[in-house]
Amino acid sequence: MILINGNLSEGIISLDSGFFFGQGVFETILVKEKPIFLGAHIQRLNSGLITLGVNKKITEAEINAGVEKLSCKNCVLKIMVSEKNTIITKREIPYEQSDYDAGFSLGLSETRRNAYSNLTYVKSFNYVENIIERDKIIKKGYNEALFLNTEGFISEGAISNIFFEQKGIVFTPKIKCGLLPGIIRDFVIQNSLSIGVTIQEGEFTLDKLMEAQSVFITNSIMGIMKINKIGDKIFNESVVVSQIKRYYDRYVENNKE
After folding, report:
1. Which of 61, 71, 85, 157 has its CA 20 to 30 A from that of 167?
2. With b meaning 16 or more CB within 10 Å and e meaning fewer, what string describes 119-156?
3. Residue 150: which of 116, 107, 106, 108 has the closest Cα?
4. Domain with 6 in it: what CATH number?
5. Which CATH number do you get for residue 111?
6. Taking a C-beta distance cutoff of 8 angstroms, is the pair 66, 90 a contact?
7. Are strands 223-230 and 214-219 parallel, antiparallel or unpaired?
8. What angle do CA 254, 255, 257 make, to 5 degrees?
């Protein structure tokens, strides 16, 4: 189902700079009984609109109205916003318990993230590079693509942020490494004391990552996903990753209604 400028399945999409030049932003939100982290998603969306020079602001009330019209519960909500269009769609959550039990594998993309481009930090309509690179990696038998930046430091996944653990300390690339500031990434960092872990942001090489005891990735739909393999290297189960996932899962459970 789709909501186009407030009209259910029968609205008209206007051709504007979003569709001609990619001057628009989007968010994907996990919905249980209600949207999870809605305020943070709206803040990032509106910040992206400002960066792209789109004179428009989306409110939580608009999105909640869209959720109600689409009868969206236990689903993924996608919001696309350009100068003349606000499009809201829903789809099924793609992750199963078996995914979390097995964990995901990462393959290294040959494409480098440009930490000097403003577009790197905006979840914009210009997302096709992520899709192309992730498709390449999936065809090689992995679940997600991992990007380095132009300086050779690890950056992010095609649809995720990355964390790794060594001797009980959790590391993650700093935003200036050229990555989208993820909602769940921020949640994990902001709640590190409550979770009981130490997190350090910085610039890390691929060699540093491959020396890790454990690795996990995050995004708003999958939440916390352990990594079982990067390239040919196998990573073992981790008490630290399980601890972080339990904290996140409890938060979602307690805030889903």
Report:
1. 157
2. ebbbbbbebeebeebbebbeeeebbbbbbbbeeebbbb
3. 116
4. 3.30.470.10
5. 3.20.10.10
6. no
7. antiparallel
8. 105
pTM given for the model:
0.95
Token pair listed for 103: 């964990």
Q: How far is it, in rounded angstroms, from Cα 184 to Cα 28?
A: 12
Does 16 share its domain with 110?
Answer: no
Report the alpha-carbon distance of residue 88 to residue 72 in Å, rounded: 11
Structural tokens at position 25: 């932003």
59 and 183 together in one domain: no
Helix (H, G, I), strand (E, B) or coil at 57: coil
Q: What is the pLDDT of residues 135-162, one digit of tens each?
A: 999 999 999 999 999 999 999 999 999 9
Tell how strand 154-157 and strand 104-113 pair up: unpaired
From the list 161, 164, 204, 168, the residue with the least C-alpha distance to 186 is 161
Q: Are residues 87 and 198 in the same domain?
A: no
CB 164 within 8 A of CB 214: yes
Q: What is the pLDDT of residues 193-228, one digit of tens each?
A: 999 999 999 999 999 999 999 999 999 999 999 999
Question: Phi first, then psi: what are they for 73, rounded to 5°?
Answer: -140, 140
Question: How far, in Å, CA of 103 to CA of 229, rounded?
Answer: 8
223-230 vs 104-113, strand pairing mode: parallel
